[in-house]
Amino acid sequence: MFNEYYSTWFRKSLDVIGGELDRISAEYPNKAMTISEWGLCEPAHKGGDLRRIKEMTEQLKIYGSKDYVAGAIYFCLNDYRTHMGEDFTYAYPQRVHGVCDIFLNPKPSYYTLKKESSPLIIKSVGVKNGTATITLLGKTAIPSYNLKNYSIVSGNEKVIIDKLEPGQEKTFKIKINENHFSIIRPTGFEVADYQFQEK
What we know:
By secondary structure, the protein is an alpha+beta fold. It has helices at 17-27, 48-64, 108-116, and strands spanning 2-3, 33-37, 69-72, 80-81, 94-95, 120-128, 131-138, 147-154, 157-164, 169-175, 180-184, 190-195.
């Protein structure tokens, strides 16, 4: 477990992360590493949500390039009230660390984190005569795991993704009766959404 704050609390930059993770891993050979915290903590660190988006995208690329990194836990979901807070916008101090505000309204970074946290990539989409041909790729970086019984949903149409393994590519067809389709976990949560471009 390692809290990775090189570009903020550690007063360094994104450029050092890869080397520092390698150094730590070498001290614990043949051990998996979990990034137990990472994120942008405002207002102590400037740049706002645009910086949060840029850095989380880059950090996930770095983590995903290291085969010893087993996972990464983003800190955090929402801004929160605390006596240690640095932001006094309201009558109580808060910490502005989240991808949602203190009232759980998503910031733009929420949607970036959602996209980056999907276990699959939508590689290509083609539409002909009301049917979409969708090619999916199982991610080999973070997060990466076998998918079973996920589904592609468009309106009342549904196609089951019986199985998709990391690195595996599969193509599916679905009738389209809306301007988008979603990919849904067996638990009902959406992991990806695709909007068709208007012509």
